[in-house]
Design brief:
By secondary structure, this protein is an all-alpha fold. It has one domain: Four Helix Bundle (Hemerythrin (Met), subunit A), CATH 1.20.120.340. It is 79% helix and 0% strand. The longest helix is centred in the middle third of the chain and has 25 residues. The model has no long low-confidence stretch (mean pLDDT 85).
């Protein structure tokens, strides 16, 4: 059996979730992912695992960039500006 099979199935499931999600659910998924990776980064810092810390911080940064792109600059008001 292929050891990557489980990962491939999980990725396919995630793709289906994303494709069928409402904009609100996508935002929730992004925030949930950022929180998960941030906690992993903190754990890596405590273990002095620099490589993992860097990967997790990069993932959080990518999610924050995606969230910024999705902001409604016309209808978001002061919250979006600040």
């Amino acid at each position: 059996m292929n050891p990557n099979y489980g990962g491939a199935v999980a990725n396919q499931y995630l793709i289906q979730q994303i494709n069928g999600a409402t904009p609100e659910h996508l935002m929730f998924m992004l925030l949930e992912g950022a929180q998960k990776f941030l906690l992993q980064a903190v754990a890596a810092i405590r273990r002095r695992d620099i490589a993992t810390r860097a990967r997790m911080v990069n993932r959080v940064s990518s999610i924050v960039e995606e969230l910024a792109i999705r902001l409604d600059h016309e209808g978001g008001g002061e919250l979006v500006v600040n």
